[in-house]
Amino acid sequence: MLVNNPVIPAFIPPKRTLMGPGPSDVPQRILDAMQRPTIGHLDPAFQEMMEQIKSLLRYAFQTNNSLTFPVSAPGSAGMEMCFVNLVEPGDKVLICINGVFGNRMLENVKRCGGVPVVVEDDWGKPVSIAKVEQALRDNAGIKVLAFVHAETSTGAQSDARSLAALAQKHGAFTIMDCVTSLGGTPVLIDEWGIDAAYSGSQKCLSCTPGLSPVTFSDRAIAKVKSRKMPVQSWFLDLNLVLGYWQSSGKRTYHHTAPINPLYGLHEALVILSEEGLESAWSRHRAMHEQLKTGLESLGLTFVVEASARLPQLNSIWIPDAVDDAAARGKLLSEFNLEIGAGLGALAGKVWRIGLMGYSARQHNVDFCLKAIRRVLHK
Amino acid sequence: MLVNNPVIPAFIPPKRTLMGPGPSDVPQRILDAMQRPTIGHLDPAFQEMMEQIKSLLRYAFQTNNSLTFPVSAPGSAGMEMCFVNLVEPGDKVLICINGVFGNRMLENVKRCGGVPVVVEDDWGKPVSIAKVEQALRDNAGIKVLAFVHAETSTGAQSDARSLAALAQKHGAFTIMDCVTSLGGTPVLIDEWGIDAAYSGSQKCLSCTPGLSPVTFSDRAIAKVKSRKMPVQSWFLDLNLVLGYWQSSGKRTYHHTAPINPLYGLHEALVILSEEGLESAWSRHRAMHEQLKTGLESLGLTFVVEASARLPQLNSIWIPDAVDDAAARGKLLSEFNLEIGAGLGALAGKVWRIGLMGYSARQHNVDFCLKAIRRVLHK
């Protein structure tokens, strides 16, 4: 043989406490679900489970949208699915940028041949409603308004209800990134009137990474169906994906669904449904309050002002005297604790402490505060 | 709440024997790996595992290509990654179509703005080398030759070595679909001189579905890096993905990798490396010979002529008197045995019996023959 077989043993990962920007700690129930026997993607038993996932996701998103399902790929693919389907070449798209993921939206719009109009806010601030209102007035014919509800790179939450209302007033569709908010803070798709939204499995749903729950309004589907140009992605073309995830009639094979990861997502959503959204939101809020008190008692300060602060993602300034990489390395090697580094403009300047899903619990808050205190020698 | 929480219990799948076109039976070792503790996608321990996966995949593909890794999505996304990166608008692409997946390649080329030139062969036949040679002569300036090594819709294997040699002679790049061949019959990327190839986790690797191993030659990477137009997909842009999967220096966050599914793929590749490729190929061949003898003794006949027949995917004509759906339904409900239906032009006419990976073993062959005998009342 040209290339010989490498001798590599089974991989046994260390047991970490995950308090970065995701993945979050995964409950044993979900890990147990992941290892159940694999069945076929067209098996009647599997199709019944698909219907349950759709129903559980409608609850999580608070929507009656029939087209609500998990994309067979991570959140970035969920984002791309929204843009490639809803944006046609030449469409004017208003993008709100206040962190890494707004920039990624801009990249998506460009690659779809859309014409971007950008409203920028400082990293760590929420999207300015006034600026968006002005931009909608200044730029006639905006087809889509796109914004990030919960910026994972900063921990700022924007006012999705007001942004969606502005879009409706100006006849634009809305695309919302709720990767970090779904399950942690209210995401009210129907009440707000959002047309397309995408999330991730590994944040406040506490599932393993790799799936992106999405939801599309009926008018979004109508827009996709009436496109002049075909969707540029075959894998993400809703017209084709519909044939596999649609609820009525015979399912058509599109691609092979990731069976076992979907078992995991199903269990994550069952857990959320058992707890109830309001309880999950309160728990994230309560754990955040405790963490905040503890961090402030260590002299640490928050990047985001209190009114826009996400309970599930706590960005704090790294104290001047502290070596970022060395401190995070110590947390990992001595405490098996993962917290997040800064991204983009905030790299080296902030830490991002996640309290997402199963990580938003008393044990984690206490453990994290203890570990950070030790590393900062307080 | 607008939408109430549905009361849905945990999903306990039935235990099936998977002998369709994939997913194949997943060994317990792989399922066990899937439920190990989730760690972060930038964790040093995870990055070490990524390097091992790359090394194990190089063995499976028989290549020294440095860019050899699993795409975080199913095989259809692996296909799309090859086309969106290697095809630029206006590029002439020769597509060989002899089943469903050649047609999917054609869809991809159109959506990339490529100019397709099609060579068609009957479903069930291998790609005609003579026709491809003629098409390369008749159409000057073909940039890429694309073909399916092992057509999952029919069970026909094409002569990849000769096709790649023709592409090289005419200065074209090659894209090869080896979704169903990798691990089951020889796939010799470097020896044949293939520039880009994609596979799937759930066929002869016997992992759960959802990941697509890919490999790119250095000259393919050079072509991607020198593109005039940006790659139309952000999620699949190799220029960006390289930053996360490249081996040297600091890894850059691109998207969150599907951690636990990658544990599963790692274990699947360790198993393949332990067995050795030659042994795996022989085992697939031996199990196929037994199945063939048994099926023929039941009066069943093969769709594909012996010389082009894939051992791991056995397409047989459904006897006239037999109701396709009823018979497959009975296999599933009475024997918990899944076999594959016909796709596209062969729907209702053929069954596809998979002997892939862990499903290519004595127990499965005996069990499948017994079940089919009962259902056919022989």
Write the layout of secondary structure elements.
The structure is a homodimer of 378-residue chains.
Chain A: E1 17-19, H1 28-34, H2 44-61, E2 67-71, H3 75-86, E3 92-97, H4 100-111, E4 115-120, H5 129-138, E5 142-148, E6 150-151, E7 156-157, H6 160-169, E8 173-177, H7 189-192, E9 196-198, E10 212-216, H8 218-225, H9 238-245, H10 259-275, H11 277-297, E11 313-317, H12 324-335, E12 337-341, E13 350-354, H13 362-375
Parallel strand pairs in A: 1-12, 3-4, 3-5, 5-8, 8-9
Antiparallel strand pairs in A: 2-10, 6-7, 9-10, 11-13, 12-13
Helix pairs in contact in A: 1-10, 2-10, 5-6, 11-13
Give me some keywords for this one.
homodimer; Aspartate Aminotransferase, domain 1; Aspartate Aminotransferase, domain 2; 2 domains; 7-stranded mixed beta sheet; 4-stranded mixed beta sheet; 13 helices; 16% strand
What does this structure look like?
The structure is a homodimer of 378-residue chains. With 378 residues, chain A is α/β, with parallel strands linked by helices. In chain A, 40% of the residues lie in helices and 16% in strands. In chain A, the strands form three sheets. In chain A, strands 2-10-9-8-5-3-4 form a seven-stranded mixed beta sheet, sandwiched between helices. A four-stranded mixed beta sheet of chain A has the order 1-12-13-11. The first copy, chain A, has a two-stranded antiparallel sheet with strand order 6-7. In chain A, strand 3 (92-97), helix 4 (100-111) and strand 4 form a beta-alpha-beta unit. In chain A, helix 2 crosses helix 10 (259-275). The longest helix of chain A has 21 residues, at 277-297. Chains A and B meet through helix 1, helix 2, helix 3, helix 4 and helix 10 of A and helix 1, helix 2, helix 3, helix 4 and helix 10 of B.
